[in-house]
Write a structure and sequence with these properties.
Low-confidence stretches of chain A: none
Strand order of the largest sheet of chain B: 1-2-6-5-4-3
Shape of chain A: elongated
Strand content of chain A: 35-45%
Helix content of chain A: 25-40%
CATH architecture of one domain in chain A: 2-Layer Sandwich
Shape of chain B: globular
Strand content of chain B: over 45%
Oligomer: heterodimer
Mean pLDDT of chain A: 85
CATH superfamily of one domain in chain A: Metallocarboxypeptidase-like
CATH topology of chain B: Immunoglobulin-like
CATH class of one domain in chain A: Alpha Beta
Distance between the termini of chain B: 46 Å
Largest sheet of chain B: 6 strands, antiparallel
Order of helices and strands of chain B: EEEEEE
Distance between the termini of chain A: 90 Å
């Protein structure tokens, strides 16, 4: 097999000799170190294979041996290249394409962010850009573990961040619903302080000295559990002081004022059905527009749809196109009926409550009243909630020492 | 010191196979279908019934049926067919 492959690489030819097997020819070829194989004898002729490089030598030998020969067919890579010379540029194109695909696979061409809620995608992208990570960054220079740490430092309220690179995509998954109250990773001495004004409903301390009691009304920033643990002797005098990261689960009852109003009259968009579209092409982050759509509408919506060329889910290419659609509309004055307005206000209140519940807040009482007064829909009232209100805050031991002294 | 597997001493001169320095002809026969001859001089006669090869000090005559030369290089020749007789003839 290897022998055949080597022969294919150098090329070989099938020779037809007009006489039968000529021993003189064979012996001359042997002396000139010409390899012969596949000898087959026909009634009038004889065919055999020799290497392509030996054809010139054969010409001299054939003259000497007084034999007429002809090259029946040539085989091998050099012959194929010669035959497909016109298609050589195609081959070069395929090779260059392969090299380009490989080169572009070394960079990041898509950043996918999922799970963000309070923080926007643009904020996270901006933070990444400050860390020199953007479209076109070299993949090997991105340390995902380090990136997770930097993002966690930058967005302190993110509970969980996961960064991974697949194909040419950088995936960033964040979680904001796991709030800071469950963060037990702090190892430096810290107190637990109140994040808002509330009345303490329950307090379960696992580490530290509780300062607040159930039923206490506390203000934002008050210390609820201290990280300073004093050891007393029999005379109730401080014998020793330890500083620990305070850990406790503290729930408080808070009151939130909900106030939202909107007018019954509003402007409604009525689309005329006139659309115009143009395209922008992007390559390696640069954009160019072959033509601009002449938009002569007074009022119009612009819908931008970005499409990036990709193979599979994660192998994105550095080029794509952006479709810009312009939809004409006119503004028409409209008015909500009272029932409609109440329905909309109710929906908005429900959305607000759902968002609170997603963050782990329990609704104890909802006193929000919806009314329609003077052409306005007003939703106003108090919502009593039960929620985690303790947050860890580091303290300076030297200051604490001076307070103790 | 004697080797465990032979009676010769390991300090003896190694015995080089005689065909390595091309002094002698090496003939390998596989059954009666194929014969391989190395270190020969030239081919004297080729036919379907007989192939005669000249070696350094003798001739090798191979008699058989449907004899063909598979390949033929500067140091080796392979003949296949049905071999009936291999004869060494002094020059």
């Amino acid at each position: 097999m290897i022998g055949f492959f080597l022969k294919y690489l150098t090329g070989f030819a099938k020779i037809e000799v007009s006489s039968g097997i000529n021993t003189r020819l064979l012996n001359l070829m042997k002396n000139r170190k010409i390899d012969v194989w596949g000898i087959s004898e026909n009634p009038d002729t004889c065919t055999f294979f020799i290497n392509r490089k030996d054809i010139n030598e054969l010409e001299k030998i054939a003259e000497k041996a007084d034999v007429e020969y002809k090259i029946q067919k040539e085989y091998g890579l050099p012959v194929n290249i010669k035959k497909n010379k016109k298609r050589f540029s195609l081959l070069i194109g395929i090779i260059i394409f392969g090299i380009l695909i490989y080169m572009e696979s070394l960079f990041i061409w898509n950043i996918s962010i999922a799970g963000e809620d309070d923080y926007t995608k643009d904020e996270i992208l901006q933070a990444l850009s400050d860390m020199d990570i953007s479209y076109g960054s070299y993949k090997k220079e991105i340390d995902t573990v380090e990136l997770e740490r930097l993002l966690r430092e930058h967005f302190s309220e993110l509970a969980w961040i996961s960064c991974s690179i697949r194909g040419t995509s950088l995936y960033i998954d964040v979680k904001e619903t796991l709030d800071v109250f469950t963060d037990t990773s702090l190892t430096v001495p810290s107190n637990i302080i109140a994040v808002k004004d509330c009345s303490i409903y329950s307090i379960v301390t696992s580490e530290g000295t509780p300062v607040a009691k159930i039923g206490d009304d506390v203000k934002k920033g008050d210390i609820l559990v201290s990280g300073t643990v004093n050891l007393y002797d029999d005379n109730a005098e401080i014998m020793d002081t330890h500083y620990v990261p305070a850990k406790a689960e503290i729930k408080g009852i808070t009151e939130t004022i909900y106030d939202e109003e909107f007018s019954l009259t509003y402007y409604k968009k009525e689309y005329s059905g006139n659309n115009k579209t143009d395209y922008t092409f992007s390559i390696f982050g640069y954009e160019f527009k072959p033509y601009n759509a002449k938009v002569q509408y007074d009022l119009y919506d612009t819908v931008t749809d970005e499409n990036r060329v990709h193979i599979g889910d994660s192998f994105y290419m550095p080029f794509g196109f952006i479709k810009n659609s312009f939809r004409e509309y006119s503004l028409v004055m409209a008015e909500y009926s009272e029932d409609e307005a109440v329905q909309i206000a109710g929906d908005r209140l429900n959305t607000y409550i759902c968002e609170l519940q997603e963050k782990g807040v329990q609704i104890l009482e909802n006193n929000v009243k919806i009314s329609v007064v003077d052409g306005k829909c007003i939703a106003k009232g108090k919502i009593r909630t039960l929620e985690n209100i303790g947050i860890s805050k580091e303290f300076d031991i030297r200051k604490e020492d001076s307070v103790v002294e | 010191m004697k080797s465990l597997f032979s009676n010769s001493c390991i300090y003896d001169n190694p015995q080089i196979c005689p065909d390595v320095n091309r002094n002698s002809t090496k003939v390998t026969i596989h059954g009666n279908k194929c014969i391989l001859i190395e270190n020969f001089r030239c081919v004297l006669n080729v036919s379907k019934e007989e192939v005669t090869i000249k070696a350094k000090k003798y001739m090798i005559s191979i008699t058989g049926r449907s004899l063909t030369i598979d390949y033929y290089t500067s140091y080796e020749i392979k003949i296949s067919g049905t071999i009936l007789k291999v004869e060494y003839i002094d020059i």
